[in-house]
Amino acid sequence: MKGNVSVTVRVPAKVNVQLAVGAPRSDGFHDLANVFLAVGLYDEVTVEPSDGGLRLTCSGPDADQVPLDRTNLAARAAIALAARHGLGEPGVHIHIAKDIPVAGGMAGGSADAAGALLACDALWGTETPRDDLLAICAELGSDVPFSLVGGAALGRGRGELLTPLEVGGAFHWVFAVADGGLSTPAVYAEFDRLTEGVAVPEPEASPALLEALRTGDPSALAAALANDLQPAALSLRPSLAETLRAGTEAGALAALVSGSGPTTAFLTKDAESATAVAEALIASATCRTARVAVSPAPGATVL
Ligand code: C5P
């Protein structure tokens, strides 16, 4: 291991501009056509050597909701990387400066895993090949590989098989943060319940949506946004419909639940409109807070 230094990695949140969900597979996961877009809300993961074994701390407004034991994906990432290199129990202090909503459908936990992996690789000088890092990410969770690469990508399989996508311009978003989280497995289980007895089609990426990303056209992207998990998230959290309505009435081009929710995402035509929609959402009292962010954003980056 290298000397007594610390490494900080910045990692973005994501929104799924299309989340097409297939029928459940025999392993319990669902095949997806998952169009990820990284957005400029970031967690920062800092690692430094620790004499006391693996230690995890977290700061930020929602820090009390983050588990600080070995179940945290960031801790699991450090353990997995150490195992890959035969280093045994990692002596590392991982600090997460959290700005991404917790359990919000914006891949905050996945971001921390990708950040911890890249940061530990730099701290330990292990120089893990990119493909090996991506394989470790995929073992940690379906969304973790995308947190590493950022930008925009189509995720197939359970979301871990990535093809990078071209994005032709900046998109301006507002994210309404709800009180409390939603469990991703619970939302998928509700999707299964709602689609019982229905022939669920093979998930396919929408050509119109890919074209809208390529040309950077917010109106075209707004028309193509789609999330198959939205009915399930709304079924578990009916009040989200009021948030979606409030943002649309305030001038958003389109609104949808972000991933498995309960964060809701609003695409706007420009930065000025995003500020106005965020203010209206906060005034509507249908959410805890609202944040503006621009996409695409770069993936996990050593600062
Ligand atoms: O891969 P990850 O650990 O993030 O998945 C969390 C849960 O979300 C899984 O246990 C599963 O219930 C659900 N999931 C799914 N199909 C996917 C991705 C996640 O059913 N493609």
UniProtKB/TrEMBL annotation:
<dbReference type="GO" id="GO:0016114">
    <property type="term" value="P:terpenoid biosynthetic process"/>
</dbReference>
<dbReference type="InterPro" id="IPR020568">
    <property type="entry name" value="Ribosomal_Su5_D2-typ_SF"/>
</dbReference>
<feature type="active site">
    <location>
        <position position="143"/>
    </location>
</feature>
<dbReference type="InterPro" id="IPR004424">
    <property type="entry name" value="IspE"/>
</dbReference>
<dbReference type="GO" id="GO:0050515">
    <property type="term" value="F:4-(cytidine 5'-diphospho)-2-C-methyl-D-erythritol kinase activity"/>
</dbReference>
<feature type="binding site">
    <location>
        <begin position="101"/>
        <end position="111"/>
    </location>
    <ligand>
        <name>ATP</name>
    </ligand>
</feature>
<comment type="similarity">
    <text>Belongs to the GHMP kinase family. IspE subfamily.</text>
</comment>
<dbReference type="InterPro" id="IPR006204">
    <property type="entry name" value="GHMP_kinase_N_dom"/>
</dbReference>
<keyword id="KW-0414">Isoprene biosynthesis</keyword>
<feature type="active site">
    <location>
        <position position="14"/>
    </location>
</feature>
<dbReference type="Pfam" id="PF08544">
    <property type="entry name" value="GHMP_kinases_C"/>
</dbReference>
<protein>
    <recommendedName>
        <fullName>4-diphosphocytidyl-2-C-methyl-D-erythritol kinase</fullName>
        <ecNumber>2.7.1.148</ecNumber>
    </recommendedName>
</protein>
<comment type="function">
    <text>Catalyzes the phosphorylation of the position 2 hydroxy group of 4-diphosphocytidyl-2C-methyl-D-erythritol.</text>
</comment>
<dbReference type="InterPro" id="IPR014721">
    <property type="entry name" value="Ribsml_uS5_D2-typ_fold_subgr"/>
</dbReference>
<dbReference type="GO" id="GO:0005524">
    <property type="term" value="F:ATP binding"/>
</dbReference>
<dbReference type="Pfam" id="PF00288">
    <property type="entry name" value="GHMP_kinases_N"/>
</dbReference>
<dbReference type="InterPro" id="IPR036554">
    <property type="entry name" value="GHMP_kinase_C_sf"/>
</dbReference>
<keyword id="KW-0547">Nucleotide-binding</keyword>
<keyword id="KW-0067">ATP-binding</keyword>
<comment type="pathway">
    <text>Isoprenoid biosynthesis; isopentenyl diphosphate biosynthesis via DXP pathway; isopentenyl diphosphate from 1-deoxy-D-xylulose 5-phosphate: step 3/6.</text>
</comment>
<keyword id="KW-0418">Kinase</keyword>
<feature type="domain" description="GHMP kinase C-terminal">
    <location>
        <begin position="209"/>
        <end position="281"/>
    </location>
</feature>
<feature type="domain" description="GHMP kinase N-terminal">
    <location>
        <begin position="72"/>
        <end position="151"/>
    </location>
</feature>
<dbReference type="GO" id="GO:0019288">
    <property type="term" value="P:isopentenyl diphosphate biosynthetic process, methylerythritol 4-phosphate pathway"/>
</dbReference>
<dbReference type="InterPro" id="IPR013750">
    <property type="entry name" value="GHMP_kinase_C_dom"/>
</dbReference>
<keyword id="KW-0808">Transferase</keyword>
